[in-house]
């Protein structure tokens, strides 16, 4: 079977009018060209058309090289894939323009489909430091400038709290297209989801599997058994049925393939409710709530 072209893979319309695939490959902890190449090859073969990187992952150059070499193998071009990267916390503020241009250079691209402020704080500053809001605003102004130049097709934020989002929406010239946050049945983030809906911002999930911890949860295992799916597929489907794009990460080609098999089944309302009832506010990743 030939791979699905981006134009016909399940996608969501962003507030810029551009489309973003609902399923992307997260590349956190993918290190070295060999590992990145193998994962990207498996993902393209499985129909993935979106790839999520970041300056702090230190794999932008490897991702860019892997895509350049592998896209022709699948009859694809640059325009067939959606590439995300993120501004490192060390470049927050006056270094944001330089940081974003460095990402473009590392990826060796004329444009990045989506570029995010990775974290609301600034590396080297205490979380409660009152310089953080000003640095965020300065970063956003740089991203807006590059967006207007067409170098960053969509711009957005990651790990923002409701307070950070409200402040940004009050001051921005270009609204964020995306908010990317930790999201899974134990961290449902209803206030953030509601805010994003109100603002017309796409709410995107990372860490859908809770760093693997959720794969052994008894409720998730029971739902997976009943619908003859893997726990990972159930967790990804739970998000997708709420209209939330997902970014499962794996270096294992077989798991990459299985994680893509999430568009040919539906969870019942009962199963959706059972999973959502697991919400306890538990985080497996960083907590941005103390960042000023």
From TrEMBL:
Source species taxonomy: Eukaryota, Metazoa, Chordata, Craniata, Vertebrata
Lowers pKa of active site Tyr (site feature) positions: 86
UniProt binding sites for substrate: 118
The name this protein goes by in its record: NADP-dependent oxidoreductase domain-containing protein
Organism: Crenichthys baileyi
Signal peptide: none
Protein family (similarity comment): Belongs to the aldo/keto reductase family.
An example molecular function term from Gene Ontology annotations: oxidoreductase activity, acting on the CH-OH group of donors, NAD or NADP as acceptor
Keyword set, alphabetical order: Oxidoreductase
UniProt xrefs under Pfam families: Aldo_ket_red (PF00248)
Top-level taxon of the source organism: Eukaryota
Domain NADP-dependent oxidoreductase: 23-278
């Amino acid at each position: 079977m030939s791979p699905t072209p981006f134009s016909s893979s399940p996608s969501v319309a962003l507030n810029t009018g551009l489309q973003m695939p609902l399923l992307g490959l997260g590349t956190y902890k993918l290190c070295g060209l060999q590992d990145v190449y193998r994962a990207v090859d498996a993902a393209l073969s499985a129909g993935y058309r979106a790839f999520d990187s970041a300056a702090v992952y230190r794999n932008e150059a490897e991702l860019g090289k892997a895509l350049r070499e592998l896209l022709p193998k699948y009859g694809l071009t640059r325009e067939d894939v959606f590439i995300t990267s993120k501004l490192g916390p060390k470049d927050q503020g006056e270094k944001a323009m330089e940081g974003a241009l460095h990402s473009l250079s590392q990826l060796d691209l004329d444009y990045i489909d989506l570029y995010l402020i990775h974290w609301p704080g600034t590396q080297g500053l205490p979380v409660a430091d009152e310089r953080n809001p000003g640095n965020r605003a300065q970063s956003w102004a740089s991203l807006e400038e590059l967006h207007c130049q067409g170098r960053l097709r969509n711009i957005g934020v990651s790990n923002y709290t409701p307070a950070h989002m409200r402040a940004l929406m009050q001051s921005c010239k270009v609204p964020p297209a995306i908010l990317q946050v930790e999201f899974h049945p134990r961290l449902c983030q209803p206030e953030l989801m509601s805010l994003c809906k109100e603002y017309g911002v796409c709410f995107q999930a990372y860490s859908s599997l809770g760093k693997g911890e959720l794969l052994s949860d008894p409720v998730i295992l029971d739902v997976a058994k009943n619908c003859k799916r893997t726990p990972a597929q159930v967790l990804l489907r739970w998000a997708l049925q709420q209209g939330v794009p997902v970014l499962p990460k794996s270096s294992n080609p077989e798991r990459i393939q299985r994680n893509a098999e999430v568009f040919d089944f539906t969870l019942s309302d009962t199963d959706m409710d059972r999973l959502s009832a697991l919400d306890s506010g538990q985080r497996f990743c960083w907590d941005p709530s103390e960042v000023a």
